[in-house]
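DM from R.C. (forwarded with permission)

"hey, sorry to bug you on a friday — could you get me a structure for this? deadline for the figure draft is monday and I only need the backbone to look sensible"
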Amino acid sequence: MKRKNKKQVIVWFGVGLFLAVFCACGDGEKKPAAPQPPVKPQAVQTAPSAQPKAVQAAPAADALAQAAPKPEIAYSYRPQGKPDPFKPFVDAQIVAASKVKATRQQSIFPLQKAGVENFKVVGIMGDANRRVAVVEDAANKFYPLFIGTRMGLHNGKVTDILADRVIVDELDGKKTRRIVLTLRKNQ
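My reply, with the result:
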C-alpha cells in the first residue's frame, strides 16, 4: 500500500511541475520576433461631405505620423579587417603540392631504397605453385621475395618467380617496364 501511495505522489508531483512550467512560460508579454517593415498607408476613402478638403486632409496626416514607426538603422557589413567568408579554408594548390611531396618521399622498406638492378638473385626455392626468391643488396643483406612484393625506386612489383629468374614490373612514367633478374650461378 505504501508503494502505491509513493508512486501516486511522484506522478502527481510530476504533473504539477509540468503544469507550473507550462503556465509560467505562456504568461510573458509577447514581443515580435523581428521588427516589422513600415506599413505603407493606403488611401482612405470617405464619403463626400460639406467640409473643405483641407480639413479632411489633416486627420489623414495625423494617422500617417502615428502609423509609421521610426526608421531603424539597417545593418551594414564592413569587411575591413575580416576574413573573406567565401574563401575556402584549404588552398587547392597547397593540397596538390602536399600530395606530390607525399608520393616522392622515400620508403622505409629496404627493398624500395635501391633500384631493382642493384639486387642480385641468389636463390629460388619452392615448387611450381609457390616459389620464394632470395635477393642480396649491395650491403650483402638478404631479403625474401614473394609474388606481389614491392621493390625498387619506382614502385616495382614482383609479378612472377620462375625456376631461374624473377620478373619485376616497374612503373616508368605512364608505361610499365619489365625487368628480369636472373639467378646468379655459383662459380
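R.C.: lifesaver. The beta strands are 120-126, 131-136, 142-145, 150-151, 156-161, 165-172, 175-182.
me: no worries. Residues 126 and 132 are 6 Å apart (CA to CA).
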